[in-house]
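hey can u check if this looks right to u? its 393 residues, i copy pasted from the old doc so theres a chance i mangled smth
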Amino acid sequence: MSCNSCSTEKDGQPKGCKNNGTCGTDSCNKLTVFDWLANMSLPSGEKPFDWVEVRFKNGRKHYYKNTENLTLSIGDVVATQAQSGHDIGMVTLTGELVRVQMKRKNIDQEGEEILKIYRKASQKDIDIWSAARDKEEPMKVKARQFAIDLKLQMKISDIEFQGDASKATFYYTAEERVDFRELIKVFAREFRTRIEMKQVGFRQEASRLGGIGSCGRELCCSTWLTDFRSVSTSAARYQQLSLNPQKLAGQCGKLKCCLNYELDTYLDALKSFPSTDIKLQTEKGTAVCQKTDIFKGHMWYAYEGEWMNWHKITTDQANEIISLNKKRTKVASLEEYAATIVEDTKNQFENVVGQDSLTRFDSPKPANKRKKRRNNKNRRKPQNSQNAKNNAK
């Protein structure tokens, strides 16, 4: 219902997937919670939770109270309350899990602004909604051109019509504050509907539009990530990643959210590592840290003045040398510590197929052809030598 490939037919069923809200691209189920309580019945005397979760375009979700005691199930198209008029959405979650979701998102059930569900969407409601959805793409093209003509530093990323086609919300991104009063006048005169401008961040824009990341999978913000935490370059430094903006930036132009996924594990591992700023004092000279290997627990040091010669030691050995230096004791050299490290050259993997050759599927040349080539060469040699004798005579 929320993706463009499925769209919606007149009877409320998706066009593409024909599966009432489930498609191959998973855009219909964007950020959807699996209802693992669907097959369980309530105890006797218990009333079902009277709030439902309704999803709109691009995964936008709100929670509505079922004041009319309608029998709703996942996939039903309903008409919901809006600030003015009504909106059309699809039910994505019912029952006790809605209570859990509302508690997780800090939504008060007894608040003043309680939105309600009016009814199940009729065929007329779906027709008006479908006609409004069909206008969104050509409107977006015109709206972007109007913004360019007015020389506004903004990008209109998406347009969403309200279910009754009485209002259009324009989502845009901008680096700075934009004065779009003249733009709203142009929109109202051209599109003849109520206009609402809503600014979103670059990460929110990527989550709304979706896409494929550099890992080959769908964007995390479009599938399961709901909160956007700040990402800094220090996360890349702790993980010893090259500070290349082209590799560290996502489709939103900001640092990738996945830089924070393994950061805590790296920070825990680095607790056993000594600081790279600490120099090792030896009788041969002062050694400075050049490189660390977090996975294997190794550190490379080089003597001052001999920067090309690196000596590899373990973190335990480095901590031992530092503790001796604090007692004003110097070790002889780093070579004796580096010599104790035994390199394990054994492969950490096994070939399941049992064949390592890359040319194992190439057909070998038959031996008969090789013999024929050798015989042909041997036949040519005596003929050539006989011709040379005749020419000499």
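Residues 313 and 338 are 5 Å apart (CA to CA).
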